[in-house]
Amino acid sequence: AISTRGMQEPGVTVNLWEWNWRSIAAECPRLDRAGYDGVQVAPPQDSVKRTQAEASDPGTGSAILHPWWEVYQAVDYGLTSRMGDEAEFKTMVSACRKAGVKVYVDTVINHTTGQGTQSYGGKTYSSYDYPDAGYGREDFHVPRGECPTADGGISDYNSKTQVFNCNLSGLQDLATQTPEVRGTLADYLNKLLGYGVSGFRVDAGKHVGQADLNAIYGLLRKTKDGKRPYWALEVFGGSPGALSPQAFTSSGDVLGLDGGRQIFNAFKSYGGSGNLGDISGLSTFGEGSGLTPSSKTLSFVTNHDTDRNPGEYLGHRDGDQYLLATEWLLADGYGSPQVYSSFTIQAPTGLPENANADDRSGKNASPPSDAEGLISDASCTNGLWTCDHRLNQVVSMVRFHQYVAGKAKRNVYDREYNVLAFSRGSRGWAGFNNNAESDFAGASGERTITVQTGLKAGRYCDIVSGGKAARGCTGTEVRVRSNGRATVTLPARGAVAFTAKDRIS
Ligand code: LAG
Ligand code: CA
Question: Which CDD domains does its entry note (predicted)?
Answer without folding.
Answer: AmyAc_bac_euk_AmyA
